[in-house]
């Protein structure tokens, strides 16, 4: 599957409102369709896209990523989640599969960042990592020992 991705900036302002209106207008015309995600952080989304093999280019008005010929836009919704906008030429199954892959990578990145923050914080609080076990569902169980002062 060939995909070219552009992300609408998540900052609220006149430009993003105009782009938002333009995207919604294209949805109403049937040129684009929208698929909602549970993704909320544009920086982590950018990293997930790069890890998925997309080339990412950020400029003042849009966030571009390339993985072929098909264009996709991402925009933050009022509830804080980011939705993907796909051209009608992309099958819904391909679009959903692409977003599922991106969401899995996004979740993996969030888990890794949380893990790293937890280890740093535990060390600051005087805890020693005793054991670390990765479960079949990719959860990690950490056991800490309280360091005597």
For the structure shown, list the relevant keywords.
149 residues, alpha+beta, 3 helices, elongated, disordered N terminus
Report what the structure shows.
The protein has 149 residues and is of the alpha+beta class. The chain is built from three helices and eight strands; from the N terminus they run βαβαββββαββ. A six-stranded mixed sheet has the order 2-6-5-1-4-3, sandwiched between helices. A two-stranded antiparallel sheet has the order 7-8. α2 (42-51) crosses α3. The longest helix is centred in the last third of the chain and has 33 residues, at 92-124. It is elongated, with a radius of gyration of 19 Å. Residues 1-15 have low confidence and may be disordered.
Radius of gyration: 19 Å
Helical coverage, percent range: 25-40%
- Please report which band the strand proportion falls in: under 5%, 5-15%, 15-25%, 25-35%, 35-45% or over 45%: 25-35%
Query: From N to C, what is the helix and strand string?
Result: EHEHEEEEHEE
Low-confidence stretches: 1-15
- Biggest sheet layout: 6 strands, mixed
Strand order within the widest beta sheet: 2-6-5-1-4-3
Counted beta strands: 8
Quick one: overall form?
Answer: elongated
Instruction: State the end-to-end CA separation.
Output: 57 Å
Given the structure, what is the number of helices? 3
Average pLDDT, all residues: 76
